Amino acid sequence: MRPPRSFRPAPDSPRLAILQRSDRTELWTETVGQEPPVYGERWTESDGRPYRSFEPARSKLSAAIVKEWSGPVPAPGEGWLYLGAASGTTASHVADLVGPTGRVYAVERSLRPFSRLLSLAERWPNLLPILGDAREPTTYGALVPPVQGVYADIAQADQVEIVLSNAELFLEGSAGFVLIALKTASMGRDATAVQHVRRAEEELAQLIDLEPSVRLDPFHRGHYFLGGTVRPGRLGGGPTAPQPPRERSRERRRR
Ligand code: SAM
């Protein structure tokens, strides 16, 4: 494949490259993994570095960035706890974004996708699969050190509570980043999609400085992307003394 001419690193996540085509935005991550492709994504090189396309139709994180998510994105050197990793489509890109000095602790409870995640981790040295239930974070507590971010995509009605209990246990100094892909169809029929999102935002806003949520249509129908920054002292407990999270550039990723 012909290398793209001008990869522009995102200001707040330099292993993410954004390529503005005339008709669309393309995202690429500088990869730490080895071929073959994980889910049919394209691989290329730019300035001698290996990149693979980060497809918005396959990943809610990619769709959120394409749809101008202005909040935090995993960055080099960080540790992230990833809840609902499935077979690793997005988790592998998060591992690319945190780079060789970062770590992704990828929790999945279903055996079938977990077995694919395990074999993927043989080619992604900073991706650590954990067979576990995100509702019971203490069961994998010994495997996860304090992290800078929690990412969740588990399509459960009580996802917000699950994420907050994990954030409370694992965010370093009870502070850091929380990103949630919300599937409103999994949240019950007692409310519309918009009402579900508003409820989730109200719950999260008590503990998190929220960024504006992003609707992921047409890439992922009925899904929304929520999240932001947990400031020290807002969550109880936590594995170490409070430290302020690194400030993230609010500079827009697309100019
Ligand atoms: N995040 C993945 C990606 O972008 O590549 C897709 C995740 S899929 C929508 C949701 C996954 O969450 C499923 O693989 C499911 O087994 C997992 N899951 C659901 N509930 C869970 C729980 N309580 N603990 C851990 N994993 C869970």
Write the layout of secondary structure elements.
Layout: E1 8-10, E2 13-20, E3 25-30, E4 43-46, E5 49-53, H1 60-66, E6 79-83, H2 89-98, E7 103-108, H3 111-121, E8 127-131, E9 149-152, H4 159-170, E10 176-183, H5 193-205, E11 208-210, E12 214-215, E13 223-230
Parallel strand pairs: 6-7, 6-9, 7-8, 9-10
Antiparallel strand pairs: 1-2, 2-3, 3-5, 4-5, 10-13, 11-13, 12-13
Bound molecules: S-adenosylmethionine.
S-adenosylmethionine binds next to helix 2 and strand 7.
CATH superfamily of the largest domain: Vaccinia Virus protein VP39
Q: Number of DSSP helices?
A: 5
Number of strand segments = 13
If you compute it from the alpha carbons, what radius of gyration comes out, rounded to the nearest whole angstrom?
17 Å
Average pLDDT taken over every residue: 91
- Straight-line distance between termini: 27 Å
In the CATH hierarchy, the third-tier topology of the largest domain is known as Rossmann fold
In the CATH classification, which architecture of the largest domain applies?
Answer: 3-Layer(aba) Sandwich
Largest sheet: 8 strands, mixed
What does this structure look like?
- The protein has 255 residues and is α/β, with parallel strands linked by helices.
- It has two domains: 8-55, no CATH class; 62-230, Rossmann fold, CATH 3.40.50.150.
- It is 21% helix and 26% strand.
- It is built from five helices and 13 strands.
- The mean pLDDT is 91.
- The chain binds S-adenosylmethionine (SAM).
- S-adenosylmethionine binds next to α2 and β7.
- Residues 59-60, 83-86, 89-90, 107-110, 113, 133-135, 153-156 line the site of S-adenosylmethionine.
